[in-house]
Each structure stands twice: as structure tokens, then as C-alpha cells.
Amino acid sequence: MLIVADENIPLLDSFFGDIGEIRRVSGRSMTASDVRDADALLVRSVTRVNRELLEGSRVRFVGTATIGTDHVDLPWLEGAGIRFSAAPGCNANSVAEYVLSVISLHAEKQGLEDWTNLSVGIVGVGNVGSELARKLERLGFEVRLCDPPRAELEESRQEPGENFVTLADTLQCDVVSLHTPLTRDGSHPTFHMIGQQELAELSAGQLLINAGRGEVIDSSALLERLAQGNSPTVALDVWEQEPRINPELVDRVWLATPHIAGYSLEGKVQGTEMIYQALSQFLGLPIRKKAGQFLPEPALSKLSFTSSADEEDAIRIALRACYDPRRDDARLRHAMDGAPAERGPAFDRLRRDYPVRRECSSVKIQLKGTSKSLQDSFRAIGFKLKI
Ligand SMILES: NC(=O)C1=CN([C@@H]2O[C@H](COP(=O)(O)OP(=O)(O)OC[C@H]3O[C@@H](n4cnc5c(N)ncnc54)[C@H](O)[C@@H]3O)[C@@H](O)[C@H]2O)C=CC1
Ligand SMILES: O=C(O)C(=O)[C@H](O)COP(=O)(O)O
């Protein structure tokens, strides 16, 4: 059995080595000739999986080690009888931690003494949005949720569900965080969902975060908005036309990262684990391996705080010890300084050579004499506590 896989999927040998022969190829430049004699294809988000890639091949199974599936022509795969599996939720916690770190930096920049005074609107309340909402609510933030597809579903089932609000209501919040998939059809398409009109609703003091897909924001409209007065602060992890992103937009936004919100080691390895499970099931093989067995000891495993610690400082220190988006921002800005033809490859290299980043759950926090509210905050973020 031949498995063709994106070389950037971690732990290929550990998970798939005893299932078949593995051929590693570049996900970005994968062609039909790379996959023609494969039985299974394993990809990440940078490979367009469609008729052009797969027609005439032996491929019977496609797995993507990602949450998003907008790079895959699902109707075509179904019509061709090819089994497909994604990795829903694999890196949801990683994205939620990215957003928390961004909000904490924003609160500090605003000189806020208590970051929970910010209201947060979440657009798209699936695996990522729900995980983020859970953490924020436990921390004490006011959170507004916008998810028309879920709202309609719950209404049609007459289920008591979340108290969803409209996009317009969400845009009134101090922070607006986008977590929808990229869709172009259906009753709630997200392509350019945030355009000129929506951007005009946002003003200085507000923070707009996009860690969903770049095309959810109309970037020409965003560039225009950022050139006007009273414009919002913007943090972008995802971009239109990756990897050849617009350097002018990078210049104009406050935080710019190269689509790495979901790049915790845990998130990536769980993605591999989920497609390993799906392929094993498809082939009728037992599932013997688990992500946890391949996760190394974290470089930072313990942090201590005593009663003298200021609560806001303690949370900031701990969050940023795990993940500080400013490092990724600096790397991306540096990559954009290169020659125009070099920028796309540089964007991809930042992602390929991404340093190991561990989630907050890998760090144990030792607390001596600290308040109950600080303990609750650490737990809400996902840290383990030793009191
Ligand atoms: N930046 C990064 O590294 C990552 C980005 N992502 C992106 O985040 C997206 C969301 O991930 P999950 O929460 O796991 O997906 P999910 O499928 O669990 O949830 C998406 C939610 O968005 C809602 N939605 C759809 N259209 C909407 C609209 N027009 N307005 C408001 N809500 C709408 C859906 O009803 C659903 O509840 C993924 O599709 C992917 O594109 C995911 C992981 C990492
Ligand atoms: O899971 C998703 O969806 C994502 O956006 C991934 O984090 C993207 O990572 P790559 O597949 O582009 O490495």
C-alpha cells in the first residue's frame, strides 16, 4: 500500500509506518503525477484536492490533518467514491490560546487593569469558537456569540440553545474574533463576510481578530479602512492568497502571523492521530497509537507564583511563557522585507520550520497563598495547578 503524504504532517512514520510505504511530497506543489499510484493521500490545508489532482489515480482514501476543508472538493470526492476524513477540533484549543494571548496583549496596550472588562464577540461558534467562549466566560468576560447556521438549526429543532446574536450586534463588542469556515455557497456564505459595510461599523479601540480563513475578510476593503481615521486594531493570522500575501496589509495591521494559530504541537499531532484513526478504520485495522505517546516532555513544565504576584501580571506571564504572538509577528514582518518573489516561499518556510509550541495544559502552575480567583483564572485558561 502506498501512502502519499504532505511532508509537513508530523509523525508520519510513527503513525503510518506499519500501514504502508510512505512517500513524502511538498503539499504546496503536489501534482497528479505525485499521487497517481497512491492508495491513500494525506494532506494539510495547502493542497487543493480535486478532480485535477485525483482523476485517474488509485487513491481511495483522503485524509486532511486539519480542521478546515475548504481546500477539498468534497462533492467530487463523494461522486468518485473516495472516502474522506478531516480532523475536526484537532487544534481548536491551540487557536483559542492564540486568541487569548492576542487579547491579553491588546488589553495591555490599552492600559486596561482588568482584561475581562473587554467584551468579546465570537463569529462562528463551532469547535474553535465554543472552546474560546468557554475559556472567556470562565475568566469572567462578557461574550456574545454569532452563528446563524447553528441558531437556525436550534430554532428548527425548538431546542433551548445558546443565546445567539446577529453579526451587527457582535461588531459592537470591544473584540471581534472570527472563527467561521470559508464557504462560498449556502444560506450563510462567509466569503468576504466582513466587507466595507462591516468594517465601517468598527472603530478605534476595537480589536478585530481573524484566525479562521483569510477570504472571510475582504482585504481590499480592510486596507481602505485601515487607511482612514478612527480605524480598529487588527490582528490577522490568516490572509487572502496565502502564501503570496499582501505586504501592505502586513504593514498596516497591528499583529501579523503566518497562519499558525493552530500550530501547537498538541494540535498538530492530534491532527495526525485523527487521520490515522480514520485510515485505520477504513482499512479495518486496529487503532493502537495515541497522540499522547508521542508528545515529548515540554521545555517549560513548571511556573510558580506567590501571594505577592499581581493577578493580571501572573496571567500575562504564564500565557506568554507558553505562547507570545509577537515572536511570530516579528518573523513574518522580517520575511516580508525580502524580494517580492521570495515572500511566498518565506511565508511557507515560517510554517514548515515552526518552532515547537506547547499548550498551556503542558505547564503546571505552582501557587502559594494566591487568591481563589487567580486559581480559577489559570484553570479557565487550561493550566494544571499545584496548590
Ligand atoms: N488559523 C488557524 O490556524 C486555524 C484556522 N481554522 C479555521 O477555523 C475554522 C473554524 O473551525 P471550527 O470551529 O473547528 O469549525 P466548526 O465547523 O466546528 O465551526 C464553524 C462554525 O461556524 C459557523 N458558521 C458557518 N457560517 C457562518 C456564518 N456565516 N456566520 C457565523 N457563523 C458561521 C458554523 O455554523 C459552525 O458552528 C475552520 O473551518 C478553519 O477554516 C481552524 C484551525 C486552525
Ligand atoms: O486546521 C486548520 O484548518 C488550519 O488552518 C491548520 O492549522 C492549517 O495548517 P496547515 O494545514 O496549513 O499546515
From TrEMBL:
Residue stretches making up the D-isomer specific 2-hydroxyacid dehydrogenase catalytic domain: 20-283
InterPro entries: D-isomer_2_OHA_DH_cat_dom, D-isomer_DH_CS1, D-isomer_DH_NAD-bd, Erythronate-4-P_DHase, Erythronate-4-P_DHase_dimer, NAD(P)-bd_dom_sf, PdxB_dimer_sf
CDD domains per record: ErythrP_dh
Keywords for this protein: Cytoplasm, NAD, Oxidoreductase, Pyridoxine biosynthesis
Pfam families: 2-Hacid_dh, 2-Hacid_dh_C, DUF3410
Pathway: Cofactor biosynthesis; pyridoxine 5'-phosphate biosynthesis; pyridoxine 5'-phosphate from D-erythrose 4-phosphate: step 2/5
Organism: Marinobacter gudaonensis
Protein's name according to its UniProt entry: Erythronate-4-phosphate dehydrogenase
